[in-house]
Please model this.
Amino acid sequence: MTDNIDDEFRQIVASQLADLDEESIDDFDVEPPPPVPPLPPPRVSYELTSPRSWSPGPEIDDFVPPPPLPPAKSPSAVAWAGISSIAAGVILLGGVILGWLAASWATPVGFIVLCSGILVLFTRLPKDRDAGPDNGARV
Model:
């Protein structure tokens, strides 16, 4: 199939160029194209700018700050007990690591005191969170 297409193309080209010979090609007066004038350089105007020459756009004053939060309350006695039990557990376990206390009694006591302080603070977290009127971020 390709040979037939190639043969047909050769025949078309031969029929179009059959009446041309080297002498007739030389008889053509081919003029070179006129020279293209070069383009003028682009006009660029430079303006000196500095941070002091910048002027802000018109202000849009539609920001309304949220109401301030109420002052923070001091931790209750139960919260202080949880904080102090965490500190005591860390001190006991640190004493075992440094070799100041006997590991036979200080390790389980320190672990229990540390876990109980963490448990006390987690139980004091609020059960429901006030997320506000919106449902969070939406994409």
